[in-house]
Amino acid sequence: MKLSQLKIGAIGIIKEFTDLEMSVKLMEMGCLPGETIKVERIAPFGDPIAISVSGYQLSLRKREASTIELI
């Protein structure tokens, strides 16, 4: 399952990334494999998505969230 498919309040664990270039950016922001991630809010048209990861909130575009595979 991809992060972009989760609903508000859903929790997942980061498994891997499907885009190498985007994965570097995401890992610098605390999205590391094995981290628990929770969807806090989703904008009315589905973009961006606010998530909690590594103790802080982060907003991602839907295309960025779709590169994060969850367990």
TrEMBL record:
Domain of life, per lineage: Bacteria
Matches recorded under Pfam families: FeoA (PF04023)
Show where the Ferrous iron transporter FeoA-like domain sits.
1-70
Show the SUPFAM superfamilies listed in the entry.
Answer: C-terminal domain of transcriptional repressors
GO MF term set: transition metal ion binding
Alphabetically list the UniProt keywords. Iron
Q: Write down the InterPro entries for this protein, in alphabetical order.
A: Fe-transptr_FeoA-like, FeoA, FeoA_core_dom, Transcriptional_repressor_C
- Return the PANTHER family for the record: FE(2+) TRANSPORT PROTEIN A
Q: What is this protein called?
A: Iron transporter
